[in-house]
Amino acid sequence: MRGNPTNETSTAGKMDEAGSVTEDSPTRAGESEGVASSVWKVAVVAVIGPFMTQLDSTVVNVSLSTISHTLAAPIATAQWIVSGYLLAMALMLPLNGWLVDRMGARRLYLILFSTFTLASFLCGASRSIDALICARVFQGLVGGVLAPMTQMMIARAAGKNMARVMGYATLPILLAPILGPLLAGTILAHATWSWLFYLNVPVGILGVALAALLLPVDTATLQKRPFDFLGFALLSPGFVGLIFGLQNASHADGRWILFAGIVLLTAFLVHAVKKGQGALIDVRIFADRTFSVAAVTQFFATSIMFGRQLVVPLYLIAGCGLSAAQAGWFIAATGAGMMCSFPLLGFLTEKFGCRVVSAGGALLALLSTIAFVGMAAGQFSATWAVLSLFLAGAGQGTISIPSISAAYSSIPKARLPVANTALNIAQRVGGPFATTILAMFIASTLPHAAHAVSTQFFMAFVMLAVFHAATFIAALFLPLRISRAAKA
Fold first, then answer.
1. Check: CATH 1.10.10.10 for 36-224?
2. pLDDT tens, residue by residue, 307-316
């Protein structure tokens, strides 16, 4: 049932003096003793979606120049294979919560997964750059609704065990960017580029079959709330304008689009406050302190991840003179650190609480970034770089999931679709926000000549450290411990 948003704290549980989210009723039987097999079944199905989309994105990014050459298209046009997909995702993301409420998670997941698989086939069957871009936009429209569903389905099924389940479930997703370049190279060496997309078809068929077999039927009452046309007309183009504008803020057109996006989003906030729970996203959900703190933490956690992906490779290649292959081996240490920390999340969160784990990870990542500040000001050290990147990955891996668990634990189960959409929007804005600001710092300090020196990355790493500090401060306001599952 929908509670009055102003009374969400009493509906969803109470905050004790230590900052823990506590349950008004006893914990469900068996919940603290282990994770039920039905939860792992949901997790297996839920992970296939982001694994497929991550693999797809990595393969396409690596193969963009080959596709451009084969289809005789300039790289500026071929770039829309990636950009069109990402902007289409942003356009449809706000619809996720409303569609889940109307159709149910299982039915929607089956439809989306089947359609995404079909879109992958259409991409492979394209015979011109225009047809491929259109197919990718279609794929992005579906992916925008599909992308947030993993967190929501696991949150619904796992409850207070979400950190433990997500810690293991995230590992396969981390493998996709590693497998992507290997698969792309193998496919392009022995087949045409079309098989880069046909690769998704058997994975999609398997995902649909497992979803039909393993996902539980939605027991929650579907909420037939009317569609907020005005809210969608303001929020979706506003979100796209914000993302595109941030990514192109160095150009006058990009800045105007950014301004238009901010105006539309501001208009949506005014509209949503007036419309209340009838809005496409009920923004009053941010009145819940735990949820709003978790959303801010997620915003900055995404910003430092994307910021590091921008600054570190440029520093290693342009500043330190390493080859792309050498830089790749250094950056792989970040992924190794994340893969080491994810399986420990459940144990760490249960022992120390989400605030300590999330803030501790943010602090570890901050200290690792400060090491790069020192190297940028002085001399590069391969040993310190590998160690710092490994620790940065380990720290990054422990920030997000405890804060996501805190966010979902503070919201009644019936409102998880809306909360999931709002949280995903906060996550997706953080990356472009950070990369835009960091790109400005890099552009203002690097010379116009072909070569840079490592010291010219000093201010970029200082700014990246500021983002890390903001993540740490936000995580300090998370509840100390989660002691309940989301209420039905």
1. no
2. 888 888 888 8
